[in-house]
Design brief:
By secondary structure, the protein is mainly beta. The chain contains 2 helices and 6 strands. It is globular, with a radius of gyration of 12 Å. It starts with 8 loop residues before the first strand and ends with a helix.
Length: 91
């Protein structure tokens, strides 16, 4: 699912209603708040692109994203105010 470059605002409430996604691109929008995905999505996401948004934190449960490929994860250019988990920045 590619929703990049749309100037979307707000949080991810409706994205979390989706199931069985393996790729999610939300980059270059104006999404804000805590970035989190429900446990069902965390088990299937392999590619995650959320760069260039206004997220303020990354939910700790992202460490449980067992299918996520680190070279396919980009969280850069956000407004994070808490530490980003080391597994997300060690490439």
């Amino acid at each position: 699912l590619d929703l990049s470059n749309n100037n979307f605002t707000g949080d991810l409430t409706h994205v979390n209603e989706l199931i069985n996604l393996t790729q999610l691109s939300l980059n270059s929008n104006r999404l804000s708040g805590e970035f989190w995905l429900n446990d069902q999505l965390m088990g299937t996401i392999e590619r995650l692109k959320i760069e260039s948004n206004e997220f303020t934190s990354v939910a700790a449960h992202l460490a449980n994203a067992t299918a996520l490929k680190l070279d396919q994860c980009d969280v850069s250019e956000n407004d994070f105010t808490c530490p980003i988990p080391s597994w997300m920045i060690e490439r």
